[in-house]
Structure formats: structure tokens, C-alpha cells
Design brief:
121 residues; mainly beta; seven-stranded mixed sheet; 0% helix; elongated
Length: 121
């Protein structure tokens, strides 16, 4: 089985910082992409930052100037520093990978359970 362990969420004041981490483990053969998504109540789930198949990183326009230095030095993990947080950043943040598992050629999406980020004054 595939497990995605997410950490780093919590409560922070506007202007503060948080650092999200995602670590994938289990019966994984290879990981093609890894990224962080978020979903606020009543909204669609959206990409925050993610690494593509060729190693590039994509950011949501609303966070590009503030969420810097995302890291994927290991294929099975992604660290997302979040700076200058705003109330609009409040959401449940989910880690997602696209991967193949052992003894299977098909790629699947795997989602973490989500970690709450609350930005409040």
C-alpha cells in the first residue's frame, strides 16, 4: 500500500510562516509527480505547488511570490515553505503523487488525508 504522511499544518497569524512536508512510502516503484494542493470550504481543490515529470515546479499564481524554495531532493518527499501567509490561504492542504506501485505498470493518483492550515488574526 501507498502511504502519504503529511505534516506542518497548524494555526498561524497573518504574515506568519508554516512549512509543509510530505513523505511517500509503501509499495512504490516510481513516482512521476508530487505536489501540494488545497481546498477551502465551498471551493474546488487547486494546485498550490507541484513538481512535474521533468522536474519543473508549478505554482499557483496567488502563492508564487510567497511560497518559495520548495524542495524535492528526494523523489518520495516534498517540502513546501509557506511565507507571508494570508487569511485567504486557510484551507485543508493535501499531498498528491502520481506513481506506479510494485509489479504494476499503471500509474495512479494517491492522496494524503490532508492537513489543516488556519490563518487568523
Amino acid at each position: 500500500q501507498v502511504q502519504l504522511v503529511e505534516s506542518g499544518g497548524g494555526l498561524v497569524q497573518p504574515g506568519g510562516s508554516l512549512r509543509l512536508s510530505c513523505a511517500a512510502s509503501g509499495s512504490i516503484f516510481s513516482i512521476s509527480t508530487i505536489g501540494w494542493y488545497r481546498q477551502a470550504p465551498g471551493n474546488q481543490r487547486e494546485l498550490v505547488a507541484g513538481f512535474t515529470r521533468d522536474g519543473r515546479i508549478d505554482y499557483a499564481y496567488s502563492v508564487k511570490a510567497r511560497f518559495t524554495n520548495s524542495r524535492n531532493n528526494a523523489k518520495n518527499m516534498m517540502v513546501l515553505p509557506m511565507n507571508s501567509l494570508k487569511t485567504e490561504d486557510k484551507a485543508v492542504y493535501y499531498c498528491k503523487i502520481i506513481a506506479t506501485i510494485d509489479r504494476s505498470p499503471r500509474e495512479y493518483q494517491y492522496w494524503g488525508q490532508g492537513t489543516q492550515v488556519t490563518v487568523s488574526s
